[in-house]
Amino acid sequence: MDSGGDVAATAVLLADLEVTTDDSVDGGSGWGTGGLLEGKAVGETNRDDIFWRGAMDLRVSLAELLMAAGPLWRAAFVLSLSERLADLNVLIPDGDLYDGEEEEEIKRHETLLAAVIKLGLLNCWNQPMLLDGLMVKKLLPGIPRGPIFKAIMDEQRRWIFERPEGVEEDLEEHLRAVFSDYTSIHK
What we know:
The chain has a 3-stranded antiparallel beta sheet with strand order 1-2-3. It is about 55% helix and about 5% strand. Strand 2 (about 30-35) and strand 3 (about 40) form a beta hairpin. Residues about 25-30 have low confidence and may be disordered. The chain starts with a helix and ends in a 9-residue tail after the last helix. By secondary structure, it is mostly helical.
């Protein structure tokens, strides 16, 4: 949070934007299906809005952190807050509430948590891929065995978090452009 994450999270909360999920449509799995910006669905006309782009950059960064911790992210979040408060040498004298720096640190963590919720990241480590491994191999038939396949899948995951409104065809186009060396079989 010291690198500006709390400021970006505040901007997400103040902007009229939200990542929509299929839960909000039909009681589905909760994965990102698009977004709303000023009450309008995000698409070609407003995808490059500065607030939406900033929010999606934050969404990618938060998703990477949350995915590294997996379902233990909530415990890590509480430990982070506890450590920050301990660093401030917080003692609660005579039943008084936190004040000053302590209260600001609690607010920073609350803001970040609210942004995680608004950006649809509560269970992001379970986000399914749009393209499974067989589909990727068919799309990029020149992929050799090895770490490049993981790099391609990681790029797919990053793209999905950056574009919750994205569709499979757009992802395929993106992967073909980024990994153009693998669009044909090399001998």
